[in-house]
Amino acid sequence: MKTKTTLIFIIVAIAASIVFFSFNSGDNKSLTSKSDFDRFAHVTLIDYEGEAVSLEEFRGKPLVINSWAVWCPFCRKELADFATLQQEFGDRVTVIAIDRQEPLAKAKGFTDELGITNDMLFLLDSSDSFYKSIGGFSMPETIFVNSAGEIVMHKRGPMELDEMREHANKIINKENSL
Amino acid sequence: MVFKQATVAFNKNILMKTNTQTQNGYGVPIAIVVAGLLIAGAVFWTGSGENVASNPTRDTKGGQPSGQPAQAGEFRMPDETDHVQGNPDAPITIVEFSDLECPFCARIHPTLKRIVEENEDVKWVFRHFPLSTIHSRALSAAVASECIARLGTNDNFWTFTDEAFVNQRKLGDAWYREMALSFGIDSGAFAGCVNDKGVVADIQTDLDEATSVGGRGTPYVVVITPTGQLIPFSGALPYEQVSAVIEQARNN
Fold first, then answer.
1. Predicted-complex ipTM score
2. Is 3.40.50.1000 the CATH number for A37-176?
């Protein structure tokens, strides 16, 4: 009886060790090999036309992604500058503003008021997935991602247009910079 | 500019990833448990704040009702009317909008104290954000703290806030009087001060400022960088995260 118990204990201990080491050597390796972009590539959002847009579609492109909301005064103040940034940089950078959990009418109402609705891409995030995926805790938060999927700058808090330009220049090829 | 593109490739990618992840039979349940613990930890630490959204009406005649954007206001830079702790000439300022009855404010209080003690280049400003509809003694505690500052000293104010956060169950007139007496403040003068509507009005001003610059709950913190840029955050962030914000402010 005692031998049987010991045997079961040894088998359980070996099995636990195998599971532990496979978990640590396997899954962790795959996690650490992910690029910054992979942290939020899976996020699917809704555009102003109600169509689903996956951030995966933007893989390989220099991106400026801003988390904002109408309730956030700092966000409201800087939002129009992102539209200006998109106009200035054109196809070299894609600027996306992601509204956090507000209805279409509220978000679009504000961008319409500013007259920037068609100047850049506005997306709605009803589940707040993007903000969570970047570990957001401030408002606004903006990431500048290069074509390799690396977050070159993660800005917490609002910016002036000059700072946006400075970071945007860092994520595009030097020969193409302004 | 056309932004819409196909999402089919992405969906396939997700399926492939899911298949890969399920190859390790034991890894998945363990990963779920570990992920659950991590998520619980993250929620505990970063989601830890009290939201004005839980106040259906304006509190203290203040507090922005849920869903209504605050009127955007200019952030008031610290001045001589503020309660300041730490090096007064520090280039980085933590402005905290706080509620003395809020448990999350109690949690971040020692964190901010430690940050200021450890960093000569950081000072701490305390402003009031009493959420009266969910904290019945928040306003009276704020008033008492203001009277202690006015009739006593800046140090007395900060000692009162320290004590209030560790004795939140004791908050009430008797405890306020006891604290005022311990600072050598005349009881008659203190009683007169706490009934002064001007003190309440000043607290209301703090509260209105908090909501106008994006505060939706407590604690609400705005870090001012040496160049005057603002880094706001909500909730009782852990020490490491607040340190990271200070470092960003330093490098700004």
1. 0.74
2. no
